[in-house]
Design a protein that fits this description.
Oligomer: heterodimer
Order of helices and strands of chain B: HHEHEHHEEEHEEEHHEEHHHHHH
Radius of gyration of chain A: 25 Å
Largest sheet of chain A: 2 strands, antiparallel
Structural class of chain B: alpha+beta
Strand content of chain A: 5-15%
Radius of gyration of chain B: 22 Å
CATH topology of the largest domain in chain B: Creatine Kinase, Chain A, domain 2
Largest interface: A-B, 42 and 55 residues
CATH superfamily of the largest domain in chain B: Glutamine synthetase/guanido kinase, catalytic domain
Strand order of the largest sheet of chain A: 1-2
Number of helices of chain B: 14
Helix content of chain A: 40-55%
Number of strands of chain A: 2
Largest sheet of chain B: 8 strands, antiparallel
Shape of chain B: globular
Distance between the termini of chain A: 56 Å
CATH class of the largest domain in chain B: Alpha Beta
Distance between the termini of chain B: 49 Å
Strand order of the largest sheet of chain B: 2-3-4-5-1-8-10-9
Protein backbone atom coordinates (compact mmCIF):
# COMPACT_ATOMS: atom_id res chain seq x y z
CA UNK A 1 0.00 0.00 0.00
CA UNK A 2 1.29 3.41 -0.96
CA UNK A 3 1.13 6.53 1.24
CA UNK A 4 -1.95 8.50 0.21
CA UNK A 5 -0.26 11.77 1.02
CA UNK A 6 3.05 11.74 -0.84
CA UNK A 7 1.93 8.90 -3.16
CA UNK A 8 5.49 7.68 -3.15
CA UNK A 9 6.60 5.66 -0.15
CA UNK A 10 5.18 2.53 1.43
CA UNK A 11 2.38 3.27 3.88
CA UNK A 12 3.08 1.92 7.35
CA UNK A 13 0.72 4.04 9.42
CA UNK A 14 -2.97 3.23 9.01
CA UNK A 15 -5.71 5.31 10.56
CA UNK A 16 -9.43 4.78 10.62
CA UNK A 17 -12.00 7.28 11.78
CA UNK A 18 -15.63 6.46 12.21
CA UNK A 19 -17.83 9.51 12.43
CA UNK A 20 -21.50 8.70 12.59
CA UNK A 21 -22.24 6.35 9.72
CA UNK A 22 -19.13 7.11 7.72
CA UNK A 23 -15.79 5.43 7.95
CA UNK A 24 -12.69 7.02 6.52
CA UNK A 25 -9.28 5.48 6.17
CA UNK A 26 -5.92 7.11 5.79
CA UNK A 27 -2.68 5.30 5.00
CA UNK A 28 0.55 7.17 5.45
CA UNK A 29 4.25 6.50 5.16
CA UNK A 30 6.34 7.05 8.23
CA UNK A 31 7.69 10.36 7.01
CA UNK A 32 4.31 11.91 6.18
CA UNK A 33 2.86 10.56 9.41
CA UNK A 34 5.60 12.32 11.33
CA UNK A 35 5.06 15.52 9.40
CA UNK A 36 1.38 15.41 10.25
CA UNK A 37 2.15 14.63 13.88
CA UNK A 38 0.51 11.23 13.70
CA UNK A 39 3.25 9.49 15.67
CA UNK A 40 1.93 11.22 18.79
CA UNK A 41 -1.64 9.94 18.93
CA UNK A 42 -2.70 12.48 21.54
CA UNK A 43 -1.52 15.41 19.58
CA UNK A 44 -3.35 15.48 16.30
CA UNK A 45 -6.86 15.56 15.02
CA UNK A 46 -7.77 13.21 12.24
CA UNK A 47 -10.24 15.69 10.83
CA UNK A 48 -7.41 18.13 10.10
CA UNK A 49 -5.65 15.44 8.22
CA UNK A 50 -8.73 14.30 6.40
CA UNK A 51 -9.43 17.83 5.38
CA UNK A 52 -6.80 17.40 2.72
CA UNK A 53 -7.29 13.74 1.87
CA UNK A 54 -10.68 12.07 2.17
CA UNK A 55 -12.17 15.46 1.66
CA UNK A 56 -10.65 15.92 -1.74
CA UNK A 57 -11.75 12.53 -3.03
CA UNK A 58 -15.23 13.28 -1.97
CA UNK A 59 -15.13 16.60 -3.74
CA UNK A 60 -13.67 15.04 -6.83
CA UNK A 61 -16.44 12.50 -7.10
CA UNK A 62 -19.07 15.18 -6.82
CA UNK A 63 -17.72 18.09 -8.78
CA UNK A 64 -15.62 16.76 -11.68
CA UNK A 65 -13.11 19.23 -13.08
CA UNK A 66 -14.44 22.52 -11.73
CA UNK A 67 -12.63 25.82 -11.53
CA UNK A 68 -13.59 28.77 -9.32
CA UNK A 69 -14.47 31.72 -11.60
CA UNK A 70 -13.32 34.17 -8.93
CA UNK A 71 -9.88 32.85 -8.02
CA UNK A 72 -9.12 30.02 -10.49
CA UNK A 73 -8.91 27.43 -7.76
CA UNK A 74 -9.52 23.78 -8.74
CA UNK A 75 -10.22 20.71 -6.66
CA UNK A 76 -6.77 19.45 -7.54
CA UNK A 77 -5.54 22.46 -5.58
CA UNK A 78 -7.83 21.49 -2.74
CA UNK A 79 -6.32 18.04 -2.76
CA UNK A 80 -2.88 19.52 -2.42
CA UNK A 81 -3.62 22.19 0.17
CA UNK A 82 -6.68 21.00 2.05
CA UNK A 83 -7.84 24.62 1.97
CA UNK A 84 -10.08 26.51 -0.42
CA UNK A 85 -9.04 29.52 -2.51
CA UNK A 86 -11.61 32.19 -1.74
CA UNK A 87 -15.11 32.80 -0.43
CA UNK A 88 -16.59 32.15 -3.89
CA UNK A 89 -15.12 28.61 -3.88
CA UNK A 90 -17.84 27.63 -1.42
CA UNK A 91 -20.38 28.24 -4.21
CA UNK A 92 -18.27 26.68 -6.94
CA UNK A 93 -17.62 23.47 -5.05
CA UNK A 94 -20.88 23.46 -3.10
CA UNK A 95 -21.96 19.99 -4.27
CA UNK A 96 -18.74 18.27 -3.36
CA UNK A 97 -18.46 20.05 -0.05
CA UNK A 98 -21.83 19.09 1.27
CA UNK A 99 -21.03 15.49 2.10
CA UNK A 100 -17.75 16.56 3.60
CA UNK A 101 -19.39 19.14 5.85
CA UNK A 102 -21.83 16.51 7.04
CA UNK A 103 -19.07 14.24 8.30
CA UNK A 104 -17.12 17.12 9.78
CA UNK A 105 -19.73 19.16 11.57
CA UNK A 106 -22.83 18.86 13.67
CA UNK A 107 -25.06 20.29 10.94
CA UNK A 108 -24.66 21.85 7.51
CA UNK A 109 -26.52 25.06 8.25
CA UNK A 110 -25.06 27.97 10.13
CA UNK A 111 -27.01 28.82 13.28
CA UNK A 112 -24.51 31.10 15.00
CA UNK A 113 -23.67 34.77 14.90
CA UNK A 114 -24.73 36.91 11.94
CA UNK A 115 -23.02 40.25 11.23
CA UNK A 116 -25.21 43.00 12.67
CA UNK A 117 -25.46 44.97 9.42
CA UNK A 118 -26.61 41.89 7.57
CA UNK A 119 -29.22 41.10 10.14
CA UNK A 120 -30.45 44.70 10.00
CA UNK A 121 -30.56 44.60 6.23
CA UNK A 122 -32.62 41.43 6.34
CA UNK A 123 -35.08 42.96 8.77
CA UNK A 124 -35.39 46.20 6.80
CA UNK A 125 -35.93 44.31 3.56
CA UNK A 126 -38.72 42.30 5.16
CA UNK A 127 -40.26 45.53 6.37
CA UNK A 128 -40.00 47.11 2.91
CA UNK A 129 -41.82 44.19 1.37
CA UNK A 130 -44.65 44.49 3.87
CA UNK A 131 -44.95 48.24 3.38
CA UNK A 132 -45.03 47.83 -0.37
CA UNK A 133 -47.90 45.34 -0.06
CA UNK A 134 -49.83 47.75 2.14
CA UNK A 135 -49.16 50.56 -0.30
CA UNK A 136 -50.46 48.55 -3.24
CA UNK A 137 -53.61 47.80 -1.31
CA UNK A 138 -54.07 51.44 -0.26
CA UNK A 139 -53.71 52.59 -3.85
CA UNK A 140 -56.20 49.97 -5.04
CA UNK A 141 -58.62 51.11 -2.36
CA UNK A 142 -58.01 54.73 -3.35
CA UNK A 143 -57.04 55.53 0.29
CA UNK A 144 -54.58 58.16 -0.82
CA UNK A 145 -53.94 59.62 2.61
CA UNK A 146 -52.73 56.27 3.91
CA UNK A 147 -50.81 55.71 0.68
CA UNK A 148 -48.93 58.97 1.17
CA UNK A 149 -48.02 57.96 4.70
CA UNK A 150 -46.81 54.57 3.55
CA UNK A 151 -44.77 56.18 0.80
CA UNK A 152 -42.95 58.25 3.44
CA UNK A 153 -42.27 55.19 5.53
CA UNK A 154 -40.92 53.34 2.54
CA UNK A 155 -38.64 56.24 1.74
CA UNK A 156 -37.31 56.29 5.30
CA UNK A 157 -36.71 52.55 5.33
CA UNK A 158 -34.86 52.79 2.01
CA UNK A 159 -32.68 55.55 3.42
CA UNK A 160 -31.82 53.43 6.44
CA UNK A 161 -30.90 50.56 4.16
CA UNK A 162 -28.47 52.62 2.13
CA UNK A 163 -27.06 54.01 5.36
CA UNK A 164 -26.22 50.52 6.57
CA UNK A 165 -24.81 49.25 3.31
CA UNK A 166 -22.36 52.16 2.95
CA UNK A 167 -19.79 51.77 5.72
CA UNK B 1 8.24 49.55 19.81
CA UNK B 2 10.57 46.65 20.41
CA UNK B 3 8.82 43.40 21.32
CA UNK B 4 10.88 42.84 24.45
CA UNK B 5 10.01 46.24 25.82
CA UNK B 6 6.37 45.61 25.05
CA UNK B 7 5.87 42.13 26.49
CA UNK B 8 4.89 41.67 30.11
CA UNK B 9 7.80 40.08 31.98
CA UNK B 10 7.37 36.32 32.46
CA UNK B 11 7.30 36.61 36.26
CA UNK B 12 4.45 39.11 36.11
CA UNK B 13 2.64 37.06 33.50
CA UNK B 14 2.90 33.99 35.72
CA UNK B 15 1.34 35.89 38.63
CA UNK B 16 -1.92 36.13 36.68
CA UNK B 17 -3.73 33.08 37.88
CA UNK B 18 -7.44 32.51 37.33
CA UNK B 19 -10.24 30.22 38.46
CA UNK B 20 -9.14 26.57 38.63
CA UNK B 21 -5.52 27.54 37.94
CA UNK B 22 -4.41 24.34 39.66
CA UNK B 23 -5.45 22.46 36.56
CA UNK B 24 -6.52 24.95 33.91
CA UNK B 25 -3.50 26.99 32.87
CA UNK B 26 -5.35 29.23 30.43
CA UNK B 27 -8.48 29.70 28.34
CA UNK B 28 -8.63 30.89 24.80
CA UNK B 29 -11.31 31.64 22.23
CA UNK B 30 -10.38 32.40 18.66
CA UNK B 31 -12.53 33.46 15.74
CA UNK B 32 -11.60 32.97 12.09
CA UNK B 33 -12.79 35.64 9.66
CA UNK B 34 -12.09 36.46 6.04
CA UNK B 35 -12.71 39.41 3.80
CA UNK B 36 -14.99 39.06 0.83
CA UNK B 37 -12.75 41.04 -1.49
CA UNK B 38 -9.57 38.94 -1.26
CA UNK B 39 -8.59 35.33 -1.89
CA UNK B 40 -7.72 33.39 1.27
CA UNK B 41 -4.10 33.96 2.40
CA UNK B 42 -2.88 30.51 1.40
CA UNK B 43 -4.05 31.00 -2.20
CA UNK B 44 -3.61 34.77 -2.67
CA UNK B 45 -0.44 36.03 -4.32
CA UNK B 46 1.90 38.10 -2.22
CA UNK B 47 0.65 41.44 -3.61
CA UNK B 48 -2.92 40.54 -2.75
CA UNK B 49 -1.93 39.44 0.74
CA UNK B 50 -0.18 42.75 1.27
CA UNK B 51 -3.28 44.65 0.14
CA UNK B 52 -5.43 42.60 2.51
CA UNK B 53 -3.00 43.27 5.36
CA UNK B 54 -3.04 46.98 4.58
CA UNK B 55 -6.80 47.14 4.80
CA UNK B 56 -7.12 44.94 7.90
CA UNK B 57 -4.30 46.22 10.07
CA UNK B 58 -5.50 49.85 10.48
CA UNK B 59 -9.03 48.63 11.25
CA UNK B 60 -7.71 46.36 14.00
CA UNK B 61 -5.32 48.95 15.40
CA UNK B 62 -8.11 51.53 15.60
CA UNK B 63 -10.19 49.36 17.95
CA UNK B 64 -10.52 50.89 21.42
CA UNK B 65 -9.45 47.51 22.84
CA UNK B 66 -6.22 47.82 20.90
CA UNK B 67 -5.10 51.19 22.27
CA UNK B 68 -1.27 51.18 22.71
CA UNK B 69 -1.08 47.86 20.95
CA UNK B 70 1.94 46.15 19.50
CA UNK B 71 1.32 46.03 15.75
CA UNK B 72 3.89 44.70 13.31
CA UNK B 73 4.26 43.13 9.95
CA UNK B 74 5.75 39.65 10.38
CA UNK B 75 8.77 40.49 8.21
CA UNK B 76 9.93 43.08 10.73
CA UNK B 77 10.17 40.49 13.51
CA UNK B 78 13.29 38.41 13.99
CA UNK B 79 13.16 34.61 14.17
CA UNK B 80 13.74 34.88 17.90
CA UNK B 81 10.92 37.38 18.41
CA UNK B 82 8.53 35.11 16.57
CA UNK B 83 9.65 32.12 18.60
CA UNK B 84 9.12 34.08 21.81
CA UNK B 85 5.56 34.86 20.72
CA UNK B 86 5.02 31.13 20.10
CA UNK B 87 6.46 30.21 23.49
CA UNK B 88 4.06 32.70 25.08
CA UNK B 89 1.19 31.08 23.15
CA UNK B 90 0.33 34.39 21.50
CA UNK B 91 0.77 33.22 17.91
CA UNK B 92 0.68 29.82 16.23
CA UNK B 93 3.78 28.10 14.91
CA UNK B 94 2.23 28.41 11.49
CA UNK B 95 2.01 32.18 11.88
CA UNK B 96 5.60 32.36 13.11
CA UNK B 97 6.68 31.00 9.73
CA UNK B 98 5.05 33.93 7.91
CA UNK B 99 6.86 36.98 6.65
CA UNK B 100 5.76 40.02 4.61
CA UNK B 101 2.04 40.09 3.90
CA UNK B 102 1.20 38.85 7.39
CA UNK B 103 0.96 40.74 10.63
CA UNK B 104 0.16 40.72 14.32
CA UNK B 105 -1.69 43.13 16.59
CA UNK B 106 -1.36 42.44 20.31
CA UNK B 107 -3.03 44.52 23.02
CA UNK B 108 -1.25 46.04 26.02
CA UNK B 109 -2.53 43.42 28.50
CA UNK B 110 -1.72 40.49 26.15
CA UNK B 111 -5.32 39.34 26.46
CA UNK B 112 -6.19 39.96 22.80
CA UNK B 113 -4.08 38.98 19.86
CA UNK B 114 -5.02 39.25 16.19
CA UNK B 115 -3.05 37.33 13.59
CA UNK B 116 -3.50 38.79 10.13
CA UNK B 117 -3.11 36.49 7.13
CA UNK B 118 -2.42 33.31 9.00
CA UNK B 119 -4.55 30.59 7.41
CA UNK B 120 -7.45 33.04 7.31
CA UNK B 121 -7.34 36.80 6.85
CA UNK B 122 -8.15 37.24 10.51
CA UNK B 123 -7.48 34.92 13.38
CA UNK B 124 -8.43 36.88 16.47
CA UNK B 125 -8.11 35.44 19.91
CA UNK B 126 -8.85 36.35 23.49
CA UNK B 127 -6.79 34.79 26.26
CA UNK B 128 -7.52 34.52 29.97
CA UNK B 129 -5.68 32.82 32.83
CA UNK B 130 -7.44 29.82 34.39
CA UNK B 131 -10.87 28.64 33.36
CA UNK B 132 -12.69 31.64 31.84
CA UNK B 133 -14.11 30.47 28.55
CA UNK B 134 -17.19 32.64 28.60
CA UNK B 135 -15.25 35.77 29.48
CA UNK B 136 -12.80 35.08 26.69
CA UNK B 137 -15.62 34.49 24.24
CA UNK B 138 -17.38 37.71 25.19
CA UNK B 139 -14.17 39.69 24.83
CA UNK B 140 -13.44 38.42 21.35
CA UNK B 141 -17.08 38.69 20.28
CA UNK B 142 -16.96 42.41 21.06
CA UNK B 143 -13.82 42.82 18.99
CA UNK B 144 -15.51 40.99 16.12
CA UNK B 145 -18.68 43.09 16.34
CA UNK B 146 -16.64 46.27 16.12
CA UNK B 147 -14.53 45.00 13.23
CA UNK B 148 -17.49 43.88 11.13
CA UNK B 149 -18.56 47.51 10.82
CA UNK B 150 -15.31 48.39 9.11
CA UNK B 151 -14.46 45.25 7.18
CA UNK B 152 -16.69 43.38 4.79
CA UNK B 153 -16.53 39.77 5.90
CA UNK B 154 -17.03 36.75 3.68
CA UNK B 155 -20.31 35.50 5.08
CA UNK B 156 -23.01 33.22 3.73
CA UNK B 157 -26.44 33.10 5.37
CA UNK B 158 -26.44 29.30 5.09
CA UNK B 159 -22.77 28.47 5.72
CA UNK B 160 -21.90 31.34 8.06
CA UNK B 161 -18.40 32.81 8.15
CA UNK B 162 -16.42 31.38 5.24
CA UNK B 163 -12.99 30.06 6.15
CA UNK B 164 -10.04 28.73 4.17
CA UNK B 165 -10.45 25.26 5.68
CA UNK B 166 -13.95 23.81 5.80
CA UNK B 167 -13.23 22.54 9.32
CA UNK B 168 -13.61 26.09 10.63
CA UNK B 169 -16.68 27.02 8.62
CA UNK B 170 -19.78 28.55 10.21
CA UNK B 171 -18.98 30.18 13.51
CA UNK B 172 -15.23 30.09 12.87
CA UNK B 173 -14.88 29.63 16.60
CA UNK B 174 -12.34 27.56 18.45
CA UNK B 175 -12.79 27.44 22.18
CA UNK B 176 -9.89 25.86 24.02
CA UNK B 177 -8.30 25.41 27.39
CA UNK B 178 -4.78 24.39 28.31
CA UNK B 179 -4.90 21.75 31.00
CA UNK B 180 -2.21 20.41 33.31
CA UNK B 181 -3.06 16.75 33.84
CA UNK B 182 -0.17 15.00 35.61
CA UNK B 183 -2.55 12.95 37.75
CA UNK B 184 -4.26 11.39 34.77
CA UNK B 185 -0.91 10.75 33.10
CA UNK B 186 0.69 9.16 36.18
CA UNK B 187 -2.49 7.21 36.85
CA UNK B 188 -2.42 5.99 33.24
CA UNK B 189 -5.96 7.17 32.64
CA UNK B 190 -5.12 9.87 30.14
CA UNK B 191 -5.71 7.80 27.01
CA UNK B 192 -9.14 6.82 28.21
CA UNK B 193 -9.98 10.47 28.82
CA UNK B 194 -8.64 11.51 25.43
CA UNK B 195 -10.74 8.86 23.72
CA UNK B 196 -13.86 9.86 25.60
CA UNK B 197 -13.28 13.53 24.80
CA UNK B 198 -12.67 12.72 21.13
CA UNK B 199 -15.95 10.86 20.98
CA UNK B 200 -17.72 14.04 22.01
CA UNK B 201 -16.36 15.76 18.92
CA UNK B 202 -13.65 17.60 20.83
CA UNK B 203 -9.95 17.56 20.03
CA UNK B 204 -7.06 17.00 22.42
CA UNK B 205 -3.72 18.41 21.37
CA UNK B 206 -0.26 19.06 22.74
CA UNK B 207 1.30 22.17 24.21
CA UNK B 208 1.61 24.19 21.01
CA UNK B 209 -1.59 23.18 19.28
CA UNK B 210 -2.01 21.16 16.16
CA UNK B 211 0.42 18.33 15.66
CA UNK B 212 2.49 18.91 18.78
CA UNK B 213 3.52 16.71 21.68
CA UNK B 214 1.94 16.89 25.10
CA UNK B 215 5.09 18.12 26.85
CA UNK B 216 4.93 18.70 30.56
CA UNK B 217 1.60 16.86 30.82
CA UNK B 218 -0.08 19.88 29.28
CA UNK B 219 -2.99 19.21 26.94
CA UNK B 220 -5.18 21.51 24.91
CA UNK B 221 -8.83 20.60 24.66
CA UNK B 222 -10.93 22.35 22.05
CA UNK B 223 -14.07 22.05 19.95
CA UNK B 224 -13.68 20.61 16.49
CA UNK B 225 -17.06 21.29 14.98
CA UNK B 226 -17.96 24.84 14.10
CA UNK B 227 -21.05 24.52 11.91
CA UNK B 228 -24.58 23.67 13.01
CA UNK B 229 -24.12 24.86 16.57
CA UNK B 230 -24.21 28.34 18.07
CA UNK B 231 -21.19 29.87 19.73
CA UNK B 232 -22.96 29.79 23.10
CA UNK B 233 -23.68 26.06 22.73
CA UNK B 234 -20.06 25.33 21.88
CA UNK B 235 -18.77 27.33 24.85
CA UNK B 236 -21.30 25.65 27.12
CA UNK B 237 -20.49 22.14 25.95
CA UNK B 238 -16.77 22.63 26.33
CA UNK B 239 -17.26 24.12 29.81
CA UNK B 240 -19.16 21.03 30.88
CA UNK B 241 -16.54 18.66 29.53
CA UNK B 242 -13.75 20.66 31.16
CA UNK B 243 -15.53 20.55 34.51
CA UNK B 244 -15.57 16.77 34.19
CA UNK B 245 -11.92 16.55 33.21
CA UNK B 246 -11.05 18.72 36.22
CA UNK B 247 -12.96 16.31 38.45
CA UNK B 248 -11.22 13.32 36.92
CA UNK B 249 -7.82 14.93 37.39
CA UNK B 250 -8.56 15.76 41.04
CA UNK B 251 -9.81 12.21 41.60
CA UNK B 252 -6.76 10.75 39.89
CA UNK B 253 -4.49 12.79 42.17
CA UNK B 254 -6.37 11.74 45.30
CA UNK B 255 -6.36 8.14 44.17
CA UNK B 256 -2.63 8.19 43.45
CA UNK B 257 -1.89 9.61 46.88
CA UNK B 258 -4.02 6.97 48.49
CA UNK B 259 -2.96 3.96 46.43
CA UNK B 260 0.52 4.78 45.25
CA UNK B 261 1.95 7.54 47.44
CA UNK B 262 5.49 6.29 46.89
CA UNK B 263 5.15 6.61 43.13
CA UNK B 264 3.99 10.20 43.54
CA UNK B 265 6.68 11.15 46.05
CA UNK B 266 9.34 9.38 44.06
CA UNK B 267 8.44 11.20 40.86
CA UNK B 268 8.19 14.59 42.49
CA UNK B 269 11.30 14.11 44.64
CA UNK B 270 13.35 13.09 41.63
CA UNK B 271 12.00 15.97 39.58
CA UNK B 272 13.07 18.39 42.30
CA UNK B 273 16.42 16.67 42.68
CA UNK B 274 17.20 16.93 39.01
CA UNK B 275 15.93 20.44 38.42
CA UNK B 276 17.67 21.85 41.48
CA UNK B 277 20.99 20.10 40.85
CA UNK B 278 21.46 19.40 37.16
CA UNK B 279 24.26 21.05 35.20
CA UNK B 280 22.83 20.31 31.80
CA UNK B 281 19.18 19.79 30.97
CA UNK B 282 17.09 19.86 27.80
CA UNK B 283 13.96 21.90 27.33
CA UNK B 284 11.84 18.80 27.05
CA UNK B 285 13.11 17.21 30.24
CA UNK B 286 12.75 20.53 32.03
CA UNK B 287 9.11 20.80 31.09
CA UNK B 288 8.30 17.26 32.10
CA UNK B 289 10.02 17.70 35.47
CA UNK B 290 8.53 21.15 36.10
CA UNK B 291 5.15 19.56 35.54
CA UNK B 292 5.85 17.14 38.39
CA UNK B 293 6.99 19.98 40.63
CA UNK B 294 3.82 21.87 39.78
CA UNK B 295 1.92 18.80 40.95
CA UNK B 296 4.05 18.86 44.09
CA UNK B 297 3.01 22.46 44.74
CA UNK B 298 -0.65 21.51 44.33
CA UNK B 299 -0.15 18.65 46.79
CA UNK B 300 1.44 21.07 49.27
CA UNK B 301 4.78 19.32 49.17
CA UNK B 302 6.61 22.60 48.65
CA UNK B 303 5.19 24.91 51.32
CA UNK B 304 7.50 27.80 50.49
CA UNK B 305 7.13 27.57 46.72
CA UNK B 306 4.59 29.57 44.75
CA UNK B 307 3.02 27.95 41.68
CA UNK B 308 3.72 31.17 39.78
CA UNK B 309 7.48 30.46 39.94
CA UNK B 310 6.96 27.10 38.27
CA UNK B 311 4.74 28.69 35.62
CA UNK B 312 7.39 31.34 35.03
CA UNK B 313 10.10 28.67 34.68
CA UNK B 314 7.87 26.84 32.20
CA UNK B 315 8.18 29.89 29.95
CA UNK B 316 11.68 31.20 30.54
CA UNK B 317 13.44 27.84 30.18
CA UNK B 318 12.20 27.48 26.62
CA UNK B 319 14.78 27.97 23.87
CA UNK B 320 13.94 31.47 22.59
CA UNK B 321 13.35 32.93 26.05
CA UNK B 322 16.66 31.49 27.19
CA UNK B 323 18.52 32.73 24.15
CA UNK B 324 17.07 36.22 24.59
CA UNK B 325 19.16 36.73 27.73
CA UNK B 326 22.39 36.21 25.86
CA UNK B 327 23.85 38.33 23.12
CA UNK B 328 25.90 35.56 21.52
CA UNK B 329 24.10 32.80 19.69
CA UNK B 330 23.90 29.65 21.79
CA UNK B 331 23.87 26.13 20.42
CA UNK B 332 21.46 23.56 21.83
CA UNK B 333 24.19 22.09 24.08
CA UNK B 334 25.10 25.49 25.46
CA UNK B 335 21.46 26.25 26.07
CA UNK B 336 21.17 23.07 28.13
CA UNK B 337 24.03 24.32 30.32
CA UNK B 338 22.62 27.82 30.89
CA UNK B 339 19.14 26.37 31.42
CA UNK B 340 20.48 24.16 34.20
CA UNK B 341 22.37 27.13 35.71
CA UNK B 342 19.20 29.17 35.72
CA UNK B 343 17.12 26.41 37.28
CA UNK B 344 19.68 25.78 40.04
CA UNK B 345 19.77 29.47 40.80
CA UNK B 346 16.00 29.97 40.82
CA UNK B 347 15.33 26.84 42.90
CA UNK B 348 18.22 27.51 45.30
CA UNK B 349 15.92 28.53 48.15
CA UNK B 350 13.26 25.94 47.56
CA UNK B 351 13.45 23.31 50.27
CA UNK B 352 13.20 19.58 49.61
CA UNK B 353 9.64 18.29 49.20
CA UNK B 354 7.88 17.36 52.42
CA UNK B 355 5.73 14.28 52.42
CA UNK B 356 4.72 13.88 56.07
CA UNK B 357 1.69 16.16 56.56
CA UNK B 358 -0.19 14.76 53.63
CA UNK B 359 1.05 11.21 53.69
CA UNK B 360 -1.75 8.83 54.60
CA UNK B 361 -1.33 6.50 57.55
CA UNK B 362 1.48 4.09 56.76
CA UNK B 363 0.62 0.41 56.40
CA UNK B 364 1.50 -1.87 59.30
CA UNK B 365 4.80 -3.07 57.88
CA UNK B 366 7.43 -0.40 58.52
CA UNK B 367 9.53 0.76 55.60
CA UNK B 368 12.97 -0.85 55.30
CA UNK B 369 15.66 1.00 57.23
CA UNK B 370 17.81 1.59 54.20
CA UNK B 371 17.08 4.32 51.68
CA UNK B 372 14.62 3.40 48.94
CA UNK B 373 16.01 1.97 45.72
CA UNK B 374 17.44 4.54 43.38
CA UNK B 375 15.71 3.29 40.29
CA UNK B 376 12.16 2.29 39.67
CA UNK B 377 10.99 0.55 36.53
CA UNK B 378 11.84 3.35 34.12
Amino acid sequence: MICCYCKDKQATVHLTQIAGEKMQKVDLCEECAKKKGVNEPTAFALADLLCGLGASTEMEQASGELRCPQCNFTQADFKKAGRLGCAECYKTFADGLEGLLETMHKGTKHVGKVPYALQQTRELNDRLRQLQKKLDKAVADESFEIAAQLRDEIKQTREKLTEISTP
Amino acid sequence: MNLHEFLISPDQAAQQQGPHSRIVMSSRVRLARNLKAFAFPGWAKKAERIRALESIRPAVEALPQMADSFAQSMDTLSQMDKQILVERHLISREHAAKSSGSGIVLNREETLCVMINEEDHLRMQALRPGLQLKQAWMAIDQVDSKLERKLEYAFSPTLGYLTACPTNLGTGIRVSAMLHLPGLVLGEQINQIIQAVNKLGLAVRGLYGEGTEALGNVFQVSNQRTLGETEAEIVERLSKVLAQIIDHEENARAMLLEKKPKVVYNNIGRAYGTLANAHSISSKETMNLLSLMRLGVDLEMFPDLDRALIDELFVITQPAHLQKQFTEKLGADERDLVRADMLRERLRNVRRPVTSPLAPAQPASPPPPTTPPAKSDE
